[in-house]
Amino acid sequence: MDLVKHSGGCHCGAVRFEVWSSPDLHVFHCNCSVCTKKQNHHFIVPKSCFTLLQGVDNLTTYTFNTHVAKHTFCKTCGVQSFYTPRSNPDGYGVAPHCLDPGTVRSITVEKFCGEQWEESMEAHKSIKNMSKPGGDVLYCT
Predict the structure, then answer these.
(1) pLDDT above 90 (res 108)
(2) Whole-prediction pTM value?
(3) What DSSP string describes 76-140?
(4) Are 92 and 82 in contact (CB under 8 A)?
(5) CA distances, 119 to each of 34, 68, 78, 140 (Å)
(6) How many Å apart are CA 128 and CA 141, to the nearest integer?
(7) What is residue 65's DSSP assignment?
(8) Strands 106-112, 24-30: pairing kind
């Protein structure tokens, strides 16, 4: 798979990151309670493919329920440009709408039934491997 370096960040610019991923993004649209409230759409990458360039001191984290997911967002503007998903705590969920223009070729959106999280995870064939280096999606290190 061909990888490109995407750059992105929050609205105010305090948080900036780089992420290596395909130019053709597989984005999940989850309908769990928190994703519905914040309209969270994200693609999943291994931690080795993500680099936080600036803003670590400007991030705050919200957790709930199992506290596995770490919903990080900018303290200044409130934008969540990436987070640690419950489905892939060894990776990151990156918001495609927070990427700078010019590196995304296409976006395919897949609905994920977060209201029935356990059943959806059991039924999904590849989501668990998306954060694994060399898994179903990509290898970065």
Answers:
(1) yes
(2) 0.86
(3) TT----EEB-TT-TTEEEE-GGGBPTTS--EEEEEEE-GGGHHHHHHH-SSGGGTTSTTSSS---
(4) yes
(5) 18, 17, 31, 30
(6) 19
(7) T
(8) parallel
Percent of the chain with pLDDT over 90: 58
> SS3 for 1?
coil
Q: Over the chain, what is the mean pLDDT?
A: 88
What are the tens digits of pLDDT across the range 61-103? 999 988 988 999 999 999 999 999 988 899 999 999 999 999 9
If you count them, how many residues does the chain have?
Answer: 141
Bridge-based pairing of strands 82-83 and 50-54 is: unpaired
CB atoms within 10 A of CB 60: 11
